[in-house]
Write the structure tokens for this entry.
Amino acid sequence: MDKTNIVILGSTGSIGGQALDIVREHPDRFNVVAISCNGSWEVLADQINKFKPSYALICKKEAAENLEERIGETETEIISDSDKLSELASLPEADIILNALVGFSGFEPTIEALKAGKKVALANKESLVVGGALINDLLLEYSGQLLPVDSEHSAIFQCLVGEQEKDIEKLIITASGGPFRTWTREQMSSITVEQALDHPNWSMGAKITIDSATMMNKGLEVIEAHWLFNLPLSKIKAVIHPQSIIHSVVTFVDGSSKAQLGPPTMKVPILYALTYPNRINLEVERLDWDQAINLNFEPVDYEKFPCFKLALEAIKEGGNAPAVLNAANEVAVQRFLNNEISYIQIPTVIEKCLSKIEEPFEKSVPSFKQVDTKTRMLALTI
Ligand code: MG
């Protein structure tokens, strides 16, 4: 069998690292043609030595110098220009692009990969939040394909195999509720960065961990599901499920529901996106059916998680609102991580940006970039 040629954008992050673990488990199935990172040159050097990709891109110039010094003579072409991410996303020899970039930086590579007719294993949900309408146009126009890597969306995708879109009654997206699910609003006013970074079930990068704590992540995921599965918001519901064992549920018009479950690991959705429609062995923990397993569900408390509510309002409003929401959130999360604003100020920054940014809506990359830039500038001043 021919090997699948993979490009991994964001290879030094949590998703990228787990994807490379999969490659290591199945060297006969996968070949890494390109990897990229922002500035983690030591990890990237190690990956270049182990996987010998044709290209390795590092965004930060000073980190690139360290990288080149560390690895010395190599057959890997080192690129230190973040504008070239889109070129890696559309490499002729690539079969599939795993987009594990964080935030808006992943948007253009998704667009370019789809324009080149590539399969995109999408871990960068922000691409769909910002430009879902444009992405769906490109999927119709070119031969590209989008495969979800987000665990909830992979669960839904797996539940939908063999089903028809017209038979879907509802998508139930599960949410762990993060570390503050049982906290009172009063307790939430003094949340520290360390507390917010301590997720009960999932080990992930800083941005998505904070998004999980505010439940903005679930809001972004509802928007992601809306574009990915072409369903109206009225057919998508988020439900708290603290154990993170059921990754999502689809209810059909005959009242039957299908769920996908397993211990929380991103390796399963990553692998499914890489091998779809096939499945191959994976060394991950299985559910232990000799133990009692409790599965609990409860509704989302909108008052406790205003970021979730803001996300739903933004997609209802449509136009540029989701792009504004996303940019404002990225800046607010970074400022919280820098200890510049408090946890409860995150939704305040987003809300103000949503009310103040007014740009004519245009379904184009330059227009989304402009909205993103303007929002970031404003979000830094609130
Ligand atoms: Mg998710």
Observations:
- Residues 150-152, 221 surround magnesium ion (CB under 6 Å).
- The first helix runs from residue 14 to 25.
